[in-house]
Amino acid sequence: MATVKESTARSSRELVITAQQHILEQQQAHAPDAGGTFSWLLSGITLATKMIEAKVRRAGLLDVLGSAGETNVQGETQQKLDIYANQALLHCLGLRDTVAILVSEENEEPVTFDRARETGKYVIFFDPLDGSSNIDVNVSVGTIFSIFRRPPKMDGGIEAAVLQPGWKQVAAGYVVYGSSTILVYSAGKGVFGFTLNPDIGAYVLSHDNLRMPHQGNFYSVNEAQAHTFPAPYREYIGRLRSGALGREYSSRYVGSLVADFHRTILKGGVFVYPPTRGYPRGKLRLLYEANPLAFIAEQAGGMACDGEQRILEIQPREIHERTPLVVGGRAELEEFQRCWRATQ
Ligand code: AHM
Ligand code: MG
Residue 283 phi/psi, 5° resolution? Predict the structure, then answer.
């Protein structure tokens, strides 16, 4: 006969599984020595994203639309919500004593905390409000994050701690503030999606062990720039359009990476941001855009590369560096690799 504790646990699972519960369970199953520090860290991220979501939902009512007039480190005009989102993450994560270093798209330099090595275990990267140019037109925006362990010895200083290749990520995720708000995360044991239930203020499990279709029907790229793409990319898009992969492809592109990626992971297909005349090294940032999404794509059975190599094997040289990005299902990525080899 089940004990009271067991049956209570079972019935609460049947009712709802929150992100918090799920992370704790994953931790107990796969890293019992972590002692709750990792789930405490993730709760800082979920809290910040709930604060951001509350502002995003009221964006048309509060005075948070439009540009705040400052420019960020990439020379782009910061939106007011960008600033709020950045502050929410810095605040919620800064209070977690497990955080050693925070790197944000909106801060030129890493934010460091003077914590003992045994306490400050993690280095976190984030894009606080991706796709923020879409805020004023009610198109989905999102938050992206990537978590690394701080190296055990800090011999290489802050630089070595922040310039780690993506395969060393211990977890990554994103939140899309869309028709509903969804958190998708992976700690290296599959990908899980949680939809924010506004009635109870919690992320509840909605996508258990998310898998990306082997092949899909959509490609997502800013096609207006196609005449400036390098040859392998032009060849590739041409093959997708011509039915060479045995499917009729349609295009979908809203210009919010998180939204375009989220559709790609659920429906299948490929998202491509190639080098262009305006962005010869690609537009997207390696450490807080490409790396976390590549980690999630691989965990869901997909692939991600920068043209030449796997995104997760790139050795970063600086925190805000850009990279070309091709991410999607295996069928689409294998075809991309064939086009790449054929045009070299
Ligand atoms: P942002 O971080 O300033 O919002 O810029 C990144 C965004 C991505 O979300 C999106 O994939 C890309 O820029 C769209 O760029 P483009 O308008 O060149 O297609
Ligand atoms: Mg972005």
Answer: -95, -30
Query: pLDDT tens across 99-131, in order?
Result: 999 999 999 999 998 887 777 889 999 999 999
272 lines ligand 1 (CB under 6 A): no
Question: What is the DSSP secondary-structure string of 61-96?
Answer: TTTT-SEEEEE-TTSPEEEHHHHHHHHHHHHHHHT-
- Kindly list the structural domains of the chain, giving each domain's residue range(s) and its CATH number in brackets, ordered by start: 9-207 (3.30.540.10), 218-342 (3.40.190.80)
Token pair 């898009």 is found at 237
Is 82 near ligand 1, meaning CB less than 6 Å away? no
Taking the CB of residue 127, how many other CB atoms lie within 10 A of it?
28
Q: How many other C-beta atoms are found inside a 10 Å radius of the C-beta of residue 213?
A: 20
Å from CA of 144 to ligand 2 middle: 8
Structure-block tokens of residue 126 = 């984030």
Q: Which mutation among 252, 256, 277 tests ligand 1's pocket best, with the greatest number of atoms within 8 A of CB?
A: 256
Q: Establish whether residue 140 lines the binding site of ligand 1, counting it when its CB lies within 6 angstroms of any ligand atom.
A: no
Helix and strand element counts for the chain (H, E): 9, 17
Q: Say if pTM beats, i.e. exceeds, 0.90.
A: yes
The whole-number pLDDT of residue 246 equals 96
User: Is residue 130 lining ligand 1, measured as CB closer than 6 Å?
Assistant: yes
Distance, in Å, from the CA atom of 235 to the CA atom of 37, rounded to the nearest integer, reads 47
Confidence of residue 76 (pLDDT cuts 50, 70, 90): low
